[in-house]
Amino acid sequence: MPDLDEPGIRVRRSGGWLGRWQALRGNGVLGINARNRSYVMRWNPRSKYPLVDDKLTTKRLALEAGLAVPELYGAVRYQGELAHLDRLLAGPDSFVIKPAHGSGGDGVLVITDRRRGLFVKGDGRALTLRDIEYFVSNILSGVHSLGGIPDAAMIEYRVRPSRLFDAISYRGVPDIRLLIFRGIPVMAMVRLPTRASDGKANLHQGAVGVGIDLATGITGHGVVRDHVIDEHPDFGTPLVGHAIPDWEALLATGARCADLTGLGYCGVDLVLDEERGPMMLEVNARPGLAIQIANQSGLMTRLRRIEAMREVPADIAERIALARG
Length: 325
Known about the structure:
Layout: H1 16-26, H2 32-43, H3 49-53, H4 55-64, E1 72-76, H5 85-88, E2 95-99, E3 109-115, E4 118-121, E5 126-127, H6 129-140, E6 153-156, E7 175-181, E8 184-192, E9 208-212, E10 219-224, E11 227-229, H7 247-261, E12 265-273, E13 277-284, H8 291-295, H9 300-307, H10 316-324
Antiparallel strand pairs: 1-6, 2-3, 2-6, 3-4, 4-5, 7-8, 7-12, 8-9, 9-10, 10-11, 12-13
Helix pairs in contact: 7-10
């Protein structure tokens, strides 16, 4: 029963495998094998994967659909283009560099300022142009890509997170994960950077996952490395009771992303910029399952209810109403 051991999907081991299995099934928790077999493979056509596995392609689709995304300043696709990297970086003082085919939040470099010809990171450390060339060269070599394939590096707008997150996020940019099934949001969480995660919204590196009530957009309890918490580990500030701004707009963006990619089961990652509002970051055809732990609720009941629907409304507002009902 290996599907019960995905990071973030853990229960007490007392009672052996049978007791563990019954505890999970009783709480409606979806395991990774069941996810792959019943949802990813069944509802996601393989022909649609390239639309989301390449972030440049996803960004183009979103722009064509009129969705807000972080502005793309440029892209580097070949090692020979590194000779002109200084021109691509000559614009804004702050930016983000990330792989087009990256996964798990790896290979992301955030520059917040420039000082005397150097590029300054959020933690105050300064990098030279040569340092950034080396970083981008690794991206192109596929160090951070799915399957280690040659990749492209994206240079884009650095999101300034909503002030809502000032007291519950360490340095980085929190993101909101929506799980979408048949175009209907079924579960949500916000991932909050911590000191342990080095300012990244990556649960496997120690970020906090906080469940969000779909009906209200209000945060609940948090989870960090499988432990339920009520306060941010770095600040001691409460995680419960924060109302996410523009909640209905975020839900609608998630539903629209499912439509434009043609995926029946997907995760949509969004951010809230202080000035520009909701923006779509990426779409994932194989979303992880730790969102269940963040919400202290299994997915199976919600998924089966939607799966049993003979038809799903074409109108996004109707789908959002179903999600919040």
